[in-house]
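Researcher: Let's continue the batch. This sequence belongs to Beta-lactamase family protein, and it's 353 residues. Same format as the previous ones, please.
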Amino acid sequence: MGKLDVHFLSLIENGSIQSASYLIARNGKVAAWKSMGKLDGTADRGDLQPDSIRKLASITKTFTTVALMKLVEDGKLYLDQPVCTIIEELNNPTHQDITLYHLLTHTSGILPVGGYFNEPYPNPWWGTNGMEDWIRKVLQGPLYYRPGEAYNYSSAGFLLLGEIIQRVSGVPFESFVIENIIEPLQLDRTFFDVPESLHGQVCVVDQWDVNLLKPQEDYAKLPPRSDSGLYSTLHDMWKFGQMLLNGGAWNSERILGRRTVELMTRRHLFGKPAYQWGGKLQDKPHALGFDIAADHMTSFETQGTFQLEGAGRSALFVDPTEQMVVVFFVPSVSSWVPLSVLGTKQIIWSSLM
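Model: Same format as before. Here are the structure tokens for Beta-lactamase family protein:
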């Protein structure tokens, strides 16, 4: 049994995580693909499988970034474009300087994700009347920082990016992603709405997860699901990551141009502070829609690896130097189990020969 399996089994046995699955690919070929632990934290439905479906949470943002960059490639948007030229609610002295670039790099200064500042009782931004008038709700109050001043992780910013995509493309955000990314890549087990016939193959940890599988009554009244709405599998996520590693192409399908991928996956933030869940960083590295590994004494990933985690329970890493794609799911009732992510990265990258 390999070191990685022992690591995951230890976390499962001590109750830190419910289960684990991982896929590691190098040079375009899958080298390891395995799972262990329970599929369901609410009922006995057997074991997690290598092709089980799992909610991606914030990894959805990588699809949103690719979708937006397709519109940039088509000449319909530009990265320094003020958001207020598309969404009228931002046409005011507080928000008029926010650009698409600021939203993609989490430097807009608008509402951060709940709990970002380790506040003990984060409030949902939607308040009364649900999601009605959601754009004005996420813009209420002052900016946390001036645009471009600091990294301020904002799912609300990616909701605005989804709104921009659907206004500029003329189709719902979800339809644009399906037609331009999911279908061309043949991501057959990637969904915004998992078919009911496949609900039994979805990994869930609690009743909240179960409830999320139920379709909403009227998506037209809700924000686009551009921050955390996708479900997928390890294999589908590998194909997505491999497409980026290939410079925007998968087999005969080209999703993005090579120069677009280079722009999207290189470091853009230098010297920007970030508080982020208690960690007071003075220099937060970030690409466009991706975190990026920089030259740091505690980073095991190769410098230039672009990556994103989803709610501390899922992760995608693309390492151009090692020609490697790593995807893993570590479902847990805890929002963040450090060893399930940090320890996993250490084992994988330290084992490279």
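Researcher: Any comment?
Model: Residues 35 and 278 are 32 Å apart (CA to CA).
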